[in-house]
Amino acid sequence: MTDKRKVRKAVFPVAGLGTRFLPATKAVPKEMLTVVDKPVIQYVVDEALEAGIEHLIFVTGRGKAVIEDYFDIQVELDQTLRERNKKAELTLLDGILPPAGTTSFTRQQSPLGLGHAVWCARELVGNEPFALLLPDMIMQGEKGCLKGMVELYEQSGGGNVIAVEECAPDQAHKYGIVGVGDRIGEGYKITGMVEKPAPGTAPSNFYINGRYILQPEIFPILATQERGAGNEIQLTDGMIKLANEQDFAAYHFQGTTYDCGAKDGFILANVAFALQRSDIRSVVEGPLKELVAGLK
Ligand code: G1P
Which of 112, 126, 259, 287 is the most buried (most CB within 10 A)? Predict the structure, then answer.
Protein backbone atom coordinates (compact mmCIF):
# COMPACT_ATOMS: atom_id res chain seq x y z
CA MET A 1 0.00 0.00 0.00
CA THR A 2 1.25 3.51 -0.76
CA ASP A 3 1.99 5.91 2.05
CA LYS A 4 -0.90 8.18 3.02
CA ARG A 5 0.93 10.26 5.59
CA LYS A 6 0.47 14.02 5.55
CA VAL A 7 2.81 16.12 3.43
CA ARG A 8 4.49 18.33 6.06
CA LYS A 9 7.83 19.18 4.50
CA ALA A 10 8.75 21.03 1.32
CA VAL A 11 12.09 21.04 -0.46
CA PHE A 12 13.24 24.08 -2.45
CA PRO A 13 16.30 23.42 -4.65
CA VAL A 14 17.89 26.88 -4.73
CA ALA A 15 21.48 26.04 -5.69
CA GLY A 16 21.14 26.91 -9.41
CA LEU A 17 23.64 29.38 -10.83
CA GLY A 18 21.12 31.44 -12.79
CA THR A 19 23.35 31.71 -15.85
CA ARG A 20 20.33 32.60 -18.01
CA PHE A 21 20.10 35.83 -16.01
CA LEU A 22 23.61 37.23 -15.99
CA PRO A 23 24.80 39.80 -15.06
CA ALA A 24 21.90 40.24 -12.56
CA THR A 25 22.70 36.91 -10.90
CA LYS A 26 26.46 37.42 -10.60
CA ALA A 27 26.14 38.53 -6.97
CA VAL A 28 22.41 38.07 -6.24
CA PRO A 29 20.80 34.61 -6.27
CA LYS A 30 18.14 34.32 -8.98
CA GLU A 31 15.64 33.32 -6.29
CA MET A 32 16.08 36.78 -4.71
CA LEU A 33 15.22 38.75 -7.87
CA THR A 34 12.03 40.68 -7.21
CA VAL A 35 8.67 40.23 -8.83
CA VAL A 36 6.88 43.51 -7.99
CA ASP A 37 8.13 43.89 -4.40
CA LYS A 38 8.84 40.34 -3.20
CA PRO A 39 11.68 37.99 -4.07
CA VAL A 40 10.68 35.11 -6.34
CA ILE A 41 11.34 32.59 -3.52
CA GLN A 42 8.70 34.28 -1.33
CA TYR A 43 5.96 33.45 -3.86
CA VAL A 44 7.01 29.80 -3.88
CA VAL A 45 7.21 29.60 -0.08
CA ASP A 46 3.75 31.24 0.18
CA GLU A 47 2.36 28.57 -2.17
CA ALA A 48 3.81 25.85 0.08
CA LEU A 49 2.41 27.42 3.25
CA GLU A 50 -1.04 27.79 1.64
CA ALA A 51 -0.92 24.01 1.01
CA GLY A 52 -0.31 23.30 4.71
CA ILE A 53 3.47 22.78 4.62
CA GLU A 54 5.06 23.08 8.07
CA HIS A 55 8.79 22.80 7.41
CA LEU A 56 10.81 24.47 4.66
CA ILE A 57 13.99 22.76 3.45
CA PHE A 58 16.32 24.76 1.21
CA VAL A 59 19.04 23.05 -0.80
CA THR A 60 21.39 25.97 -1.34
CA GLY A 61 24.90 26.43 -2.73
CA ARG A 62 27.82 28.79 -2.46
CA GLY A 63 26.80 32.43 -2.83
CA LYS A 64 23.25 31.75 -1.62
CA ALA A 65 23.63 32.70 2.06
CA VAL A 66 21.42 35.74 1.56
CA ILE A 67 18.45 33.37 1.17
CA GLU A 68 19.05 32.11 4.71
CA ASP A 69 19.33 35.70 5.95
CA TYR A 70 16.07 36.58 4.22
CA PHE A 71 14.19 33.97 6.27
CA ASP A 72 15.63 35.29 9.56
CA ILE A 73 15.06 38.43 11.66
CA GLN A 74 17.08 41.47 10.55
CA VAL A 75 17.70 42.92 14.01
CA GLU A 76 18.98 46.38 13.00
CA LEU A 77 16.19 46.85 10.49
CA ASP A 78 13.55 45.84 13.07
CA GLN A 79 15.03 48.20 15.65
CA THR A 80 15.11 51.14 13.26
CA LEU A 81 11.55 50.50 12.09
CA ARG A 82 10.42 50.35 15.72
CA GLU A 83 12.20 53.62 16.59
CA ARG A 84 10.52 55.27 13.62
CA ASN A 85 7.13 53.74 14.52
CA LYS A 86 6.81 52.11 11.09
CA LYS A 87 4.03 49.73 12.10
CA ALA A 88 2.93 48.64 8.63
CA GLU A 89 6.49 47.63 7.65
CA LEU A 90 6.98 45.76 10.94
CA THR A 91 3.71 43.87 10.45
CA LEU A 92 4.74 43.00 6.89
CA LEU A 93 8.11 41.59 8.00
CA ASP A 94 6.52 39.75 10.91
CA GLY A 95 3.99 38.13 8.58
CA ILE A 96 6.64 36.52 6.38
CA LEU A 97 9.00 35.35 9.13
CA PRO A 98 8.80 31.53 9.41
CA PRO A 99 8.37 30.34 13.03
CA ALA A 100 11.69 29.45 14.69
CA GLY A 101 12.80 25.92 13.89
CA THR A 102 10.68 25.51 10.76
CA THR A 103 13.44 26.13 8.20
CA SER A 104 16.46 23.97 7.34
CA PHE A 105 19.33 24.60 4.97
CA THR A 106 21.78 22.20 3.37
CA ARG A 107 24.19 22.65 0.49
CA GLN A 108 24.44 20.96 -2.86
CA GLN A 109 28.22 21.05 -3.19
CA SER A 110 28.42 20.43 -6.94
CA PRO A 111 25.88 21.25 -9.68
CA LEU A 112 25.12 17.64 -10.64
CA GLY A 113 21.45 18.12 -11.53
CA LEU A 114 17.98 18.32 -10.01
CA GLY A 115 17.97 14.64 -8.98
CA HIS A 116 21.17 15.21 -7.03
CA ALA A 117 19.82 18.41 -5.40
CA VAL A 118 16.75 16.50 -4.18
CA TRP A 119 18.94 13.66 -2.89
CA CYS A 120 20.93 16.23 -0.85
CA ALA A 121 17.74 16.82 1.20
CA ARG A 122 17.32 13.15 2.17
CA GLU A 123 18.44 13.47 5.81
CA LEU A 124 16.30 16.55 6.37
CA VAL A 125 13.20 14.97 4.82
CA GLY A 126 13.61 11.55 6.50
CA ASN A 127 11.14 8.76 5.92
CA GLU A 128 8.03 10.69 4.94
CA PRO A 129 6.38 12.13 1.80
CA PHE A 130 7.48 15.62 0.82
CA ALA A 131 6.65 18.40 -1.59
CA LEU A 132 9.22 19.67 -4.04
CA LEU A 133 8.87 23.16 -5.51
CA LEU A 134 11.22 24.43 -8.20
CA PRO A 135 11.75 28.08 -7.33
CA ASP A 136 12.02 29.44 -10.89
CA MET A 137 8.37 28.71 -11.52
CA ILE A 138 5.76 30.99 -9.98
CA MET A 139 2.10 30.57 -10.55
CA GLN A 140 -1.16 32.43 -10.68
CA GLY A 141 -4.40 30.54 -10.30
CA GLU A 142 -7.58 30.54 -8.27
CA LYS A 143 -6.16 27.78 -6.09
CA GLY A 144 -2.45 27.38 -5.35
CA CYS A 145 -0.90 24.60 -7.43
CA LEU A 146 0.50 22.68 -4.44
CA LYS A 147 -2.79 23.03 -2.52
CA GLY A 148 -4.62 21.35 -5.42
CA MET A 149 -1.95 18.65 -5.52
CA VAL A 150 -2.31 17.92 -1.80
CA GLU A 151 -6.08 17.55 -2.33
CA LEU A 152 -5.50 15.09 -5.18
CA TYR A 153 -2.90 13.26 -3.06
CA GLU A 154 -5.43 12.84 -0.27
CA GLN A 155 -8.25 11.80 -2.66
CA SER A 156 -6.09 9.25 -4.42
CA GLY A 157 -4.87 7.66 -1.19
CA GLY A 158 -1.21 8.72 -1.29
CA GLY A 159 1.40 7.83 -3.87
CA ASN A 160 3.23 10.47 -5.87
CA VAL A 161 1.74 13.50 -7.60
CA ILE A 162 3.29 15.68 -10.31
CA ALA A 163 1.70 18.93 -11.50
CA VAL A 164 1.37 19.34 -15.25
CA GLU A 165 0.19 21.94 -17.72
CA GLU A 166 -0.25 21.88 -21.47
CA CYS A 167 2.47 23.30 -23.69
CA ALA A 168 2.74 23.89 -27.43
CA PRO A 169 4.10 20.69 -29.05
CA ASP A 170 7.22 22.53 -30.26
CA GLN A 171 8.09 23.44 -26.65
CA ALA A 172 7.93 19.88 -25.25
CA HIS A 173 11.67 19.25 -25.69
CA LYS A 174 12.43 21.84 -22.96
CA TYR A 175 10.61 19.97 -20.18
CA GLY A 176 9.79 16.71 -18.49
CA ILE A 177 6.69 15.32 -20.25
CA VAL A 178 4.18 12.80 -18.89
CA GLY A 179 1.87 10.40 -20.70
CA VAL A 180 -1.58 10.19 -19.06
CA GLY A 181 -4.36 7.61 -18.73
CA ASP A 182 -7.61 7.50 -16.72
CA ARG A 183 -8.88 10.60 -14.95
CA ILE A 184 -8.56 10.87 -11.15
CA GLY A 185 -10.10 13.98 -9.52
CA GLU A 186 -8.49 17.06 -11.03
CA GLY A 187 -5.88 14.98 -12.80
CA TYR A 188 -4.92 11.72 -14.45
CA LYS A 189 -3.07 8.51 -13.82
CA ILE A 190 0.45 8.84 -15.21
CA THR A 191 1.38 6.14 -17.73
CA GLY A 192 4.88 7.29 -18.65
CA MET A 193 7.44 10.06 -18.24
CA VAL A 194 10.36 11.34 -20.26
CA GLU A 195 12.86 14.14 -19.57
CA LYS A 196 13.39 16.58 -22.45
CA PRO A 197 12.14 14.35 -25.31
CA ALA A 198 13.73 14.81 -28.71
CA PRO A 199 11.51 17.03 -30.91
CA GLY A 200 8.50 15.12 -32.22
CA THR A 201 8.78 12.22 -29.75
CA ALA A 202 6.82 13.52 -26.70
CA PRO A 203 4.06 11.16 -25.48
CA SER A 204 1.72 14.15 -24.87
CA ASN A 205 1.83 17.92 -24.42
CA PHE A 206 1.52 17.71 -20.62
CA TYR A 207 4.73 19.21 -19.24
CA ILE A 208 5.96 18.99 -15.66
CA ASN A 209 5.65 22.52 -14.29
CA GLY A 210 7.98 22.21 -11.28
CA ARG A 211 5.73 20.97 -8.46
CA TYR A 212 5.90 17.43 -7.06
CA ILE A 213 4.72 15.36 -4.09
CA LEU A 214 7.09 12.43 -3.72
CA GLN A 215 7.50 9.42 -1.46
CA PRO A 216 10.83 8.99 0.37
CA GLU A 217 11.57 5.82 -1.64
CA ILE A 218 12.85 8.23 -4.34
CA PHE A 219 16.03 8.82 -2.28
CA PRO A 220 17.71 5.38 -2.56
CA ILE A 221 16.96 5.49 -6.29
CA LEU A 222 18.59 8.91 -6.68
CA ALA A 223 21.59 7.71 -4.65
CA THR A 224 22.60 5.20 -7.30
CA GLN A 225 21.50 7.00 -10.39
CA GLU A 226 23.39 7.45 -13.60
CA ARG A 227 23.47 10.75 -15.43
CA GLY A 228 20.74 11.42 -18.00
CA ALA A 229 19.74 14.36 -20.23
CA GLY A 230 22.35 17.15 -20.20
CA ASN A 231 24.78 14.80 -18.39
CA GLU A 232 22.93 15.57 -15.12
CA ILE A 233 21.37 13.34 -12.49
CA GLN A 234 17.74 13.78 -13.52
CA LEU A 235 14.83 13.62 -11.11
CA THR A 236 12.54 12.46 -13.93
CA ASP A 237 14.73 9.36 -14.52
CA GLY A 238 14.47 8.55 -10.79
CA MET A 239 10.69 8.97 -10.89
CA ILE A 240 10.47 6.62 -13.90
CA LYS A 241 12.15 3.93 -11.76
CA LEU A 242 9.93 4.67 -8.73
CA ALA A 243 6.86 4.38 -11.00
CA ASN A 244 7.64 0.66 -11.37
CA GLU A 245 6.72 0.26 -7.68
CA GLN A 246 4.40 3.14 -6.80
CA ASP A 247 1.47 5.11 -8.27
CA PHE A 248 2.04 8.46 -9.95
CA ALA A 249 -0.79 10.90 -10.65
CA ALA A 250 -0.67 14.09 -12.71
CA TYR A 251 -2.47 17.11 -11.21
CA HIS A 252 -3.69 19.28 -14.08
CA PHE A 253 -3.01 22.81 -12.84
CA GLN A 254 -5.53 25.37 -14.10
CA GLY A 255 -3.66 28.63 -14.02
CA THR A 256 -0.62 30.37 -15.44
CA THR A 257 3.00 29.54 -14.70
CA TYR A 258 5.82 32.02 -15.24
CA ASP A 259 9.37 30.72 -15.59
CA CYS A 260 11.28 33.42 -13.72
CA GLY A 261 14.59 31.77 -14.59
CA ALA A 262 14.12 33.14 -18.13
CA LYS A 263 13.92 36.81 -19.08
CA ASP A 264 10.56 36.66 -20.85
CA GLY A 265 8.89 34.73 -18.00
CA PHE A 266 10.35 37.07 -15.39
CA ILE A 267 9.15 40.21 -17.18
CA LEU A 268 5.68 38.78 -17.79
CA ALA A 269 5.48 37.70 -14.12
CA ASN A 270 6.23 41.25 -13.03
CA VAL A 271 3.49 42.64 -15.25
CA ALA A 272 0.95 39.92 -14.33
CA PHE A 273 1.51 40.17 -10.57
CA ALA A 274 1.57 43.99 -10.69
CA LEU A 275 -1.82 43.96 -12.44
CA GLN A 276 -3.22 41.76 -9.65
CA ARG A 277 -2.39 44.39 -7.04
CA SER A 278 -5.06 47.10 -6.90
CA ASP A 279 -2.60 49.74 -5.56
CA ILE A 280 -0.15 49.14 -8.41
CA ARG A 281 -2.65 48.35 -11.16
CA SER A 282 -4.23 51.78 -10.72
CA VAL A 283 -0.93 53.50 -11.59
CA VAL A 284 0.57 51.15 -14.21
CA GLU A 285 -2.45 50.05 -16.24
CA GLY A 286 -2.75 53.26 -18.27
CA PRO A 287 0.97 53.61 -19.10
CA LEU A 288 1.20 49.87 -19.92
CA LYS A 289 -1.70 50.13 -22.38
CA GLU A 290 -0.05 53.15 -23.99
CA LEU A 291 3.25 51.27 -24.30
CA VAL A 292 1.59 48.28 -25.94
CA ALA A 293 -0.62 50.43 -28.20
CA GLY A 294 2.50 52.27 -29.37
CA LEU A 295 4.23 49.05 -30.48
CA LYS A 296 4.87 48.99 -34.19
C1 G1P B 1 13.30 20.70 -14.60
C2 G1P B 1 12.77 19.28 -14.70
C3 G1P B 1 11.73 19.19 -15.83
C4 G1P B 1 10.63 20.22 -15.62
C5 G1P B 1 11.25 21.62 -15.48
C6 G1P B 1 10.20 22.64 -15.09
O7 G1P B 1 14.06 20.97 -15.76
O8 G1P B 1 13.84 18.38 -14.90
O9 G1P B 1 11.17 17.90 -15.86
O10 G1P B 1 9.72 20.20 -16.69
O11 G1P B 1 12.26 21.64 -14.46
O12 G1P B 1 10.78 23.91 -15.07
P13 G1P B 1 15.06 22.23 -15.85
O14 G1P B 1 14.19 23.45 -16.04
O15 G1P B 1 15.82 22.27 -14.55
O16 G1P B 1 15.93 21.97 -17.04
Answer: 259
